[in-house]
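Go through the following before class.
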Amino acid sequence: MGHFYRALNLAEGLAAAGWRCTFYLNDHAPSRELLEARGIAHRTVRLDDDVSDWQAQLVEQDGIRVWVDDRLDTDARHAARVKATGIPLATFDNRGPGAEAADLHVAALCFDPAERLGGGQVLRGVDYLVLNSEIGRHARLREGLRSIIVTLGGSDTYGVSLKVVRSLRESGLGATVVVGPAFMHLRELEALMTEGFVLKKGVASMIEEFSRHDLAITGGGITPFEANACGLPCVVIANEIFEIPVGRELERLGGCVFAGHYESLRSPLVRGDLLIAAMSRAGLRNVGTGGTARVVAALLELEGRGA
């Protein structure tokens, strides 16, 4: 879901620049409903279909001029079929073989300068984060810890929310726990909701929800960057191995503390010596909101010069 929400942010930026977008996605009802609610054109496709040349058919039918992949580890066959249509290919944080064929690789979550990334032009680091446009309206400095929010992704594949709630209960703390449209552990989570905990489902705006809290417990994707840009400090948990360097970089930037991989979380998750005000200032200072405009400009240039 992190890929999907980032694509929504990008689509908003492209629309502001006068571009029309079409989403191609798996048959996932919650995602389709979000697209329909926003009036965004979309088609359901079999992204795992590596036999038919569905990419070329859609490029012709929809008049596509630039193809943007925001998918993890795309394969070379898919990239080759897009490139064979004669249009440019852009990709995001892609470690798959398909990245080699990309004309543009936006790698905002790559923080290892020694890591070789595929793609003709590679844009690295936090300056190219595609963040929610609502951030500017809700950013503020936090000065103390009064309220905690827990949000571990739209699906929370590994049920990390359950571990977090148990840890907070052991520390005598409560929190607002937000689950996304594809959350898979609702019954177990509801059973843990004791006094001091509030469960919210399908929050209309996570950025607005952030504005009500002083500390967030998140995964290692885009969410902690959006929280930090709002001035909201975070405790970051890596849900995947590739999120470990992201968590470490967020800690280096000063707006977060990294609690490790979910299989070996430190305890307690929320320490009493957290410097909330200093972390809030660091987040506001080090995570900006200009990345969407930079990425849109790069895509405009890509479209202008062709593949």
User: Anything to note?
Assistant: The longest strand covers residues 256-261.
